[in-house]
Amino acid sequence: MTVRFKGKAPSRRAFLKGTLASTAGAIAGAGAASAATPDPLITEKQSWAMGTGDGVDATPYGLPIQYEGDVIRRNVEWLTADTISSINFSPIHALDGTITPQGCAFERHHSGAIELKKEDYRLMINGLVDQELIFTYEDLERFPRVNKTFFLECAANTGMEWAGAQLNGAQFTHGMIHNMEYTGVSLRTLLEEAGLGKAGDLKDKWIYVEGADASSNGRSIPMEKALDDVMIAFKANGEALRKEHGYPVRLVVPGWEGNMWVKWLRRIEVTDQAVESREETSKYTDTLENGTSRKWTWVMDAKSVVTSPSPQSPIKHGHGPLVITGLAWSGRGAITRVDVSKDGGKTWETARLANPGQPMALTRFYLDTTWTGEEMLLQSRAMDETGYVQPTKHMLREVRGENSIYHNNCIQTWWVKANGEAENVEVS
Ligand SMILES: Nc1nc2c(c(=O)[nH]1)N[C@H]1C(S)=C(S)[C@@H](COP(=O)(O)O)O[C@H]1N2
Ligand SMILES: [Mo]
């Protein structure tokens, strides 16, 4: 097995070596310091215990404590010409569990994040409906509500990795994803309110959805999906949507590519054909080896990534117990199993799912293992309830070539070195 890596030289973290040298010896096999060694944090009075802390009103709406200031969205400057039509990445290497806090959930917009007041919000349903309707925000709140957790993955997630290992961190290779608990109204409820009698046979009908921002980000969605599980969401993780995620109302299209999750949703038109807008022709289609393009590749196939250890989350402790963890998801249903390999895919161990997989939502996996300083080629491989198995990069290239940007769901490899640092590599 050979290791292939392209792109930038990895940044060396001098502090890491220092940390390892000073603590490795002190750490007992079980991963805890021995009580016999005097520790000033135990034996001496500490400043935080000798005064008072902040009063309850000091932060009416709180931010993370300053020591977590590193757990932030990050941009890759060379990726886009400006930040108005750009993307940043969720710090998945530093999060655990499955819910992405809104404040660090990646953003993607085509003409900036707009500020739209609830009072100024209108949603129009027009086209082949019995009665064209316009809803205010308050109108939407009066329909029966649904509450569900789903991942949103931009189809371009991992898109920079087609030609070789590029970006050194799970945040950058896999961070165009977030997972939130949405509250809203089922789209079906609103379409039925407008009435679909006039649309006739619904099998070949579509809806065209657009946002209130200058880009509008218009997309066509088949009626079958529109009537299935699509949501008109106004809350995420319990609170109002953040501006950057479409406040006050966005579309939630479970399991389908993020581009269809129209933010600042302003109009839904029932049509008898797809509109073939910019976002579904020149963008969000997949160019194959022979130059032709696949269109309507809406579903996000099963995928996973080890979030730690990973390039931004090196092993900083000594030898002994090691928690390997990551995320898995599938747009076709629930994750049923995740395997982890330490040797670049030669042998596999089945990881523990923190909770049973939920359809079209992130699943957290753990492999509780022992590390004795050996180098690892860490990989994870997801399986979903349809029996689909996440492919290797080689398998994906065989079918898709290297001309694609979108829908790269291949197995990722991190080369973990003896000093605990990790690097984005490819195995062949
Ligand atoms: N109105 C509008 N909706 C939009 C976009 C946009 O630019 N404008 N970007 C789309 C794309 S490409 C993605 S991946 C998701 C990103 O959602 P997020 O910013 O909440 O992460 O929103 C989609 N919906
Ligand atoms: Mo996207």
UniProtKB/TrEMBL annotation:
As given in the record, the signal peptide range reads: 1-35
- SUPFAM superfamilies per UniProt: E set domains (SSF81296), Oxidoreductase molybdopterin-binding domain (SSF56524)
Could you cite one Gene Ontology molecular function of this protein?
A: sulfite dehydrogenase activity
Keywords annotated in UniProt:
Metal-binding, Molybdenum, Oxidoreductase, Signal
Question: Where do the Moybdenum cofactor oxidoreductase dimerisation domain residues begin and end?
Answer: 294-412
Give its E.C. classification number: 1.8.2.1
UniProt cross-references to Gene3D superfamilies, sorted A to Z: 2.60.40.650, Oxidoreductase, molybdopterin-binding domain
Q: Name one GO biological process term.
A: sulfur compound metabolic process
Keyword Metal-binding part of the UniProt annotation: yes
The residue ranges of the Oxidoreductase molybdopterin-binding domain are 115-276
Q: What is the required cofactor set for this protein?
A: Mo-molybdopterin
InterPro entries attached to this UniProt entry: Ig_E-set, MoCF_OxRdtse_dimer, Mopterin_OxRdtase_euk, OxRdtase_Mopterin-bd_dom, OxRdtase_Mopterin-bd_sf, Sulfite_DH_SoxC, TAT_signal
Q: What class of enzyme is it?
A: oxidoreductase
Q: Which Pfam families match?
A: Mo-co_dimer, Oxidored_molyb
* Top-level lineage group: Bacteria
Output the NCBIfam families linked to this UniProt entry.
sulfite_DH_soxC
* Name of the protein in question: Sulfite dehydrogenase
